[in-house]
Design brief:
The chain has 334 residues and is α/β, with parallel strands linked by helices. The protein has a single domain, classed as Metal-dependent hydrolases (TIM Barrel, Alpha-Beta Barrel). The protein has 13 helices and 13 strands. Strands 1, 2, 3, 4, 5 and 8 form a six-stranded parallel sheet that branches. The protein has a three-stranded parallel sheet with strand order 9-10-12. A two-stranded antiparallel sheet has the order 6-7. α6 links the parallel β4 and β5. α11 packs across α12.
Amino acid sequence: MVKVIDMHCDTIAELYYNHRDKGHASILDHDLHVNLTKMEQGGYGLQNFALFTHLERAGERPFEYCMKLADVFFTELRAHEDKIGIVRSYRDLEENWKNNKMSALLTVEEGGVCQGELAYLRILYELGVRMMTITWNFPNELGWPNGKRETEPEHFISVPDTEHGLTEKGIEFLEEMERLGMIIDISHLNDRGIQDVFSHTTRPFVASHSNCRAITPHPRNLTDDMIRNLAERGGVAGINFCAAFLREEEGGKEPAMSYLSDMIRHIRHMKQVGGIQVIGLGSDFDGIGNQVEIQDASKMQLLAQAMEREGFTTGEIEAVFYGNVLRLYREILR
């Protein structure tokens, strides 16, 4: 069984948003894509858990809202610390694995939770947040996402934004994240903003859950130039299991199923463009609305088996499943 490191899931937000009416929401809940039992069955070494904050839901207090999500994370992890340990440094990861425990790394999906305040960023770091996206799907104090444009009433297309760069505050955040040892995540950021990240940083960073735009022309995906530049920087892109980022349907319809064959196409293309060292996993589990051939975390080895059938070597499979992300974490996490 190949060890799994997954750079992105929305399990904490799923617990908070949709399971509160059940009373005590638990990371053992059976209907989650990612729960502790399924992680054990799937061979997980580490799962990044995102504090996904929807700015419209959060209202005028996104940082406070993010703290409520963090409370869910810490409550659940402390209740099951015999099985899984929180990672704040690379040494924590080594200790967990030495003690036969899985690991959890805390991330934030939506830099707008900081409300433009570097103090909030530093507080997040002290809490244990070790990765953060600059944006989600809304503009914020730091930058812009690739957005939607109305082509006719109630019909939208997503388009790349090559006009709006990061704000001055956004550049300040990049510098502080590098100083702290918090991993910059360019997933959801617009094209011009991604260029700015390359220009204003020196260390490796990630696109935690983004695929190849050359295969599926969705602006959430990375262009070949982005993939090459990310590889040269020593960064990693996590293959996203969401069907809309894996395959384009005729008529602009949302695909109903995510297939292993589509994941392999993106992995193969990313390898051709940037090399095997740039590829990781970023499932987006518990944030996906469509069906997935890899049904949940317990079935992750299906991807390893599919890669083997398609001619990938054992070393390449291990690099994608854990080795590349592990290398980056070893370099960045203090």
